[in-house]
Design the sequence.
DNA sequence: TAGCCTGACGTTACGGGTAACTCAATGCCC
DNA sequence: GGGCATTGAGTTACCCGTAACGTCAGGCTA
C-alpha cells in the first residue's frame, strides 16, 4: 500500500495559506473568529490541496461523538432482514451517520466477535438483531456506555431500547387461524441454526395455539439451511414424504412458502383445495402471486426506520420510549381454505 | 448521551497493575519484552476492568491501517446486490475487516456524499459498485491513496482494480439468443434511475443484437421504480396494453421476469407457447419454478468474494490482477420457445 | 492618554495508543 | 571483578484535530 498515504492535514493547509492550523480549523467549522480575507485564502488552499478532514482525530480527541452505528443482522439472504437494514441505513444516512454492517450468521459467537471489534472503533451506538446473546457480549454492551437498540424480537426488558414484534403472539395467531380454518394435521417447515431466535419463538406460539385448539402439529421440520425458496421446496418434499396426510403447511417465511407451493403444485396438488399453505412476513413476492398468500404482515422497513429513529433520538438526548411494539397483521389470504364446520 | 463514556484506557490498566502503559501495550500485543509475572498481573487487570482497546488511537497515530472497508451498492431491494454484498462481507469479515455500508440509491450525488464522509474515517479501502461517478468523486478517490475496487461493471481502465462482467456482451448474447429462437417483436421491461448503469449497458447490447439479427425491440419500457416483482408485473401490463403483438419479453432481472410471468399467466397466456419470458441474474427464485427461467447466470457471491480478495491482496502488498472478468453464462431455460425455422 | 474592549489570530495541551529510545538490573565470560 | 550482552521495564515524542487560553493591534471611552 501507499507507504504513507499522502493525506493533506490541517497544518499543511495552514502552511500553504500562511496561517496557523487553528485558524484553518476555525474557518472550516465556520464559527467565526477570522476575517473574510483569511477565510477566502484558506478555502482556496483547501480546494487546491483537496483537504479532507480526518474525523478520527476529532473523535479520538473526545471532542465529538463518532457517527458510526454498528448494525448487525443474521444474514442478507433473507429478504426480511435486508428490508429492515434498508430502513435503518436510509434513516441513519439522512442524519449523517454511517452503518457498519455485521452479519452474525445466526451464531452468538460471530455476534460476540463482531461486537468486540466494532466497539473498539468507538461507535456512537449499536443496533442489534435478536435478544439472545452471550453473557460476554451483554457485558461488553453494558460497559460500552453507548445506546443500543435491540430489534426484531420485542424485548420488554431491553439492555437499553428495543423495537420489534411479539413473535410468540404472531405464531400463536397463525396457529389459531389455521385451526379455525378446520385444519387438523398441520406441518411446519423452517430452518434452525440454533434454538434461541425469533423463528423458534414463533414456532412455540404456533404449536401452543394449534395444540390448544385441538389440532396438532404433525411434524416440525427444521432444516439446517438458508430460509429461502429452495429450502422450502425440498423441505416440503421431505415433510410430505413422511407425512402424506398433512393438509396444511406453515412456513418460516414467504420465500419458503413459495418454494413449498411450487413443490406441491409440481405434484399436481392444488392450493388450497388439496393442501393449505401459509407463510410469514408478507414479502414482496407475495404481491404478484395469483392467490393472496396467507401470511403475516410485518412492517420491516418501518421497523428499521423506527430503530434508527430511536437511536438518533437517544443520541440527541431526546426522550425515547425504551420499548416499541411495531405490530404485525395476519393476512388471511386465499392459500388456505375455510371449512364450514367449526 | 453518557456524558463521558467511562471507557477504560491503557493507562488505567497500567495504574491498576502498577506498571507503565507501555508495558500494558506490550503485553497486549504479545511481542515479548515483559516477564511472565508482569504479563499475568496485567492480563488480570485487563479482564477485571473489561479493557477494550481503542482502535481509533492506533490508526490515528498512523501506526497501522484501519480495518474499515467502505462498500457501496445501489440498494438492498435487488437481490443481485445483496448477494454481492454478502460475498464481500463474508470474505472481509474472515480477515478481520469491517464493512461500512453505503447505499447510493442509484445516484451519483448520494455516492459522492457517501465517499466524502467515509473517506474522512480513513478506511483501508473502498469497494464501489458501478463505473460511472462524478468527477469530484473520482478526484477524491485518486487523492485518497487507498485501494479501490470497482465492481459489477467490468472496467477495463479502472481507477485501481475492477471485477465484474461485460454487461454489453451479456445483453448482446441474450438478444442474439432470443432472435435465434425466432422471436421478431421483442419487448423489454426494466427500470431506469439514470442512464449510466449496468442495466442500460445490457439493454444497449441487447438492442444491438436484436436489431442486428433482423428482429426488433418493439418497446423498451424503463420504469422509475424498484427492479422487483411488482414492477415486472405492472410493467408487463403496460407493455402489452400498448403492444399486444409482442411475443417475447426480456426483463432487467429475474424478479421482474417472475412478476411479468405472473401477469401474463393471469391473462391466461401460457409461457412459452403464447409469450416468451427471459430474465437476468439467475436469482434463487428461479430454482423452484416449474419451468427453468431463461436467464443469465452471474456468480454474484463469487463476484463479491473476488472483490474482497483483490482488496485484501492489495492491502497485504501481494500482486493483484487489476481487472478480473468474472464471467456470465446464458441459461437457455424453457420459458422461451425454440422455433424450427431459422 | 490610560484603560478597556474586541476582533483576529497564535500557542499550548490533550486524547490513547505505539515506535524509538533510554536505563537499570542481572547474568555470564574471561 | 570489569566489560558486555540480555532482559524488563520506563520515558519521550508523535499522530491530527480542537478547547482553552494568550497576545497584540486598533478603536473607543472617560
Sequence:
Amino acid at each position: 500500500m501507499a507507504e504513507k498515504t499522502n493525506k493533506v492535514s490541517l497544518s499543511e493547509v495552514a502552511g500553504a495559506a500562511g496561517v496557523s492550523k487553528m485558524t484553518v480549523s476555525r474557518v472550516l467549522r465556520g464559527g467565526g473568529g477570522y476575517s473574510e480575507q483569511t477565510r477566502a485564502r484558506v478555502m482556496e488552499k483547501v480546494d487546491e490541496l483537496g483537504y479532507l478532514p480526518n474525523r478520527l482525530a476529532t473523535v479520538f480527541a473526545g471532542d465529538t461523538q463518532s457517527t458510526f452505528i454498528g448494525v448487525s443482522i443474521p444474514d442478507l439472504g433473507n429478504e426480511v432482514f435486508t428490508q429492515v437494514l434498508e430502513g435503518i441505513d436510509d434513516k441513519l444516512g439522512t442524519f449523517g451517520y454511517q452503518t457498519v454492517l455485521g452479519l452474525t450468521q445466526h451464531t452468538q459467537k460471530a455476534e460476540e466477535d463482531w461486537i468486540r471489534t466494532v466497539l473498539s472503533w468507538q461507535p456512537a451506538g449499536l443496533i442489534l438483531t435478536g435478544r439472545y446473546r452471550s453473557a460476554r457480549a451483554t457485558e461488553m454492551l453494558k460497559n460500552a456506555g453507548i445506546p443500543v437498540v435491540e430489534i426484531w424480537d420485542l424485548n420488554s426488558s431491553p439492555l437499553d431500547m428495543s423495537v420489534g414484534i411479539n413473535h410468540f403472539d404472531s405464531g400463536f395467531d397463525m396457529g389459531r387461524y389455521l385451526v379455525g380454518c378446520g385444519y387438523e394435521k398441520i406441518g411446519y417447515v423452517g430452518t434452525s441454526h440454533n434454538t434461541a431466535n425469533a423463528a423458534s419463538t414463533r414456532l412455540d406460539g404456533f404449536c401452543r395455539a394449534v395444540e390448544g385448539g385441538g389440532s396438532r402439529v404433525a411434524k416440525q421440520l427444521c432444516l439446517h439451511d438458508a430460509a429461502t425458496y429452495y429450502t422450502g421446496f425440498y423441505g416440503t418434499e421431505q415433510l410430505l414424504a413422511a407425512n402424506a396426510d398433512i393438509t396444511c403447511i406453515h412456513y418460516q417465511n414467504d420465500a419458503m412458502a413459495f418454494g413449498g407451493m411450487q413443490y406441491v403444485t409440481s405434484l399436481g396438488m392444488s392450493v388450497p383445495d388439496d393442501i393449505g399453505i401459509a407463510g410469514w412476513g408478507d414479502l414482496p413476492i407475495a404481491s404478484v402471486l395469483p392467490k393472496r398468500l396467507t401470511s403475516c404482515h410485518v412492517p420491516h422497513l418501518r421497523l428499521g426506520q423506527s430503530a434508527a429513529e430511536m437511536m438518533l433520538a437517544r443520541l440527541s438526548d431526546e426522550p425515547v420510549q425504551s420499548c416499541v411494539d411495531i405490530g404485525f397483521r395476519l393476512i388471511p389470504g386465499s392459500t388456505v381454505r375455510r371449512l364450514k364446520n367449526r
Summary: Chain A is about 45% helix and 15% strand. Chain A touches chain B through 74 residues (CB under 8 Å).
